[in-house]
Amino acid sequence: xxxxxxxxxxxxxxxxxxxxxxxxxxxxxxxxxxxxxxxxxxxxxxxxxxxxxxxxxxxxxxxxxxxxxxxxxxxxxxxxxxxxxxxxxxxxxxxxxxxxxxxxxxxxxxxxxxxxxxxxxxxxxxxxxxxxxxxxxxxxxxxxxxxxxxxxxxxxxxxxxxxxxxxxxxxxxxxxxxxxxxxxxxxxxxxxxxxxxxxxxxxxxxxxxxxxxxxxxxxxxxxxxxxxxxxxxxxxxxxxxxxxxxxxxxxxxxxxxxxxxxxxxxxxxxxxxxxxxxxxxxxxxxxxxxxxxxxxxxxxxxxxxxxxxxxxxxxxxxxxxxxxxxxxxxxxxxxxxxxxxxxxxxxxxxxxxxxxxxxxxxxxxxxxxxxxxxxxxxxxxxxxxxxxxxxxxxxxxxxxxxxxxxxxxxx
Length: 411
Ligand code: SAH
Fold this sequence. Notes:
Blueprint: E1 5-9, H1 15-18, E2 23-25, E3 29-33, E4 41-45, E5 51-57, E6 63-69, H2 78-91, E7 101-106, E8 115-120, E9 123-128, H3 131-135, H4 137-148, E10 152-155, H5 159-164, E11 172-175, E12 183-187, E13 190-194, H6 209-226, E14 231-235, H7 241-248, E15 253-258, H8 261-273, E16 287-292, H9 295-304, E17 309-314, H10 326-341, E18 344-354, H11 361-375, E19 379-386, E20 404-410
Parallel strand pairs: 1-4, 9-10, 14-15, 14-17, 15-16, 17-18
Antiparallel strand pairs: 1-3, 2-6, 4-5, 5-6, 7-8, 8-9, 10-11, 12-13, 18-20, 19-20
This protein binds S-adenosyl-L-homocysteine.
């Protein structure tokens, strides 16, 4: 093993690794011996030479190394990497029965830092966003195709994230055929068409599967408690998910808002795909109102129109991408939650989400509580919501937990 380069840490900087946190920041490194290349295997050692971890070296990144393993006896080779992929796929086997759109590999949580793999039917959409996994891309792709029997792999890596790792811009077809313009998927009882090439993330918000299902389950519950079919407002609807789930579950009407005309066009198609639009083009029996607009403004407009809702979903984009944006993001979250609560009927439910990693659950709850106070709308916290089981959070890597939500019930 003498050929393997060594990253020696500064005194005291071994603490986070000793707690099995998988990142080594540039500022923690005292010296590098052995001139490792981008993505090369390194042994990370404490200032007293104690072994801490095997890691992939990223000379251009502030995260200077990402750990593969904390066990000195491990040999980080092709077999080891393939075993990680197989384990990740096996971990999701049960989910495969209810959906053909699921995350198969979730980076650090699956021991493959920087690798994201989402499956959509016969397509694997990958993001290779760290030097270590990029250095082993062929092996990882071969293993993925074998483990899933999926012949097609499409690369949707974020060029900005790759650049931060000193990696060139890449994308497009890596294996098999290019995806059709819209790939059909099934999520529980519902169907959607997904744009793998240009859609958000890898095409679909797979992480919200359980919460879309919950929106569907809330409809009959609200119908019983209110004595009538609920009216639903789906803010930041993207390709329709939450609203379609609610409409199919028997909502009286669904108003969906998004600023993207393209997303709304797909959303309309998805509504039709799920039988929410009759063949003649008329909408029946649920009333669907698609609004291409800014949610911040629409919440005020809907209030001026005198509209009220029994179920409201707020699933905005990431308002804070780093710590510096937290304060401004907090104001934005408060604004939309206040606007939504003002439209919510007594007994109604609000599903409010944040996918900003920089805002933790406690802070998010505080922000929403502030909106509750300002709206003078007493609410119970009925549930804390999170991403589905295919997006696991490693206890030692809390940064992986980005999606959080609150289910509130207005008193
Ligand atoms: N709930 C969706 C995902 C939402 S993603 C689902 O389950 O699939 C966030 C969406 O917010 C994107 O579609 C984006 O176009 C939209 N968006 C971003 N800023 C907006 C704004 N100010 N007003 C309305 N829509 C906005």
